[in-house]
Automatic annotation (TrEMBL):
The chain crosses the membrane at residues 44-61, 67-86. InterPro entries: Mpo1-like. This is DUF962 domain-containing protein. It comes from the Bacteria. Keywords: Membrane, Transmembrane, Transmembrane helix. Signal peptide: none annotated.
Amino acid sequence: MSTATPSGAHGPAGHRVDPRSFRSFAEFYPFYLAEHSNRTCRRLHFLGSTLALVCLAMLLATGRPYWFLLGLVAGYGFAWIGHFGFEKNKPASFKRPLYSFMGDWVMYKDIWTGKIPF
């Protein structure tokens, strides 16, 4: 069972929750959102994800593999700038890479649909 609070980032007595403690993505996503409470961080994630999609389209259109590399740099680069520069935390992708990758795209959709403020 997870020790995450509704805000997700801290458990009992303010201790940090280890992202590896979540047993499902549904448990992890509130934690993920709490780790992206800074609006600038979310905007940088959104920009990086958008650029990664553009790079994916260019990869498919041209077949040139460097677009894949540029997509990774854009997606992760902007996200890490958001975390280290604005959110002041470490990206959960260091401990939960798959759930974090999934969280990026669910948050991206949630921003597009207005569920999360941009």
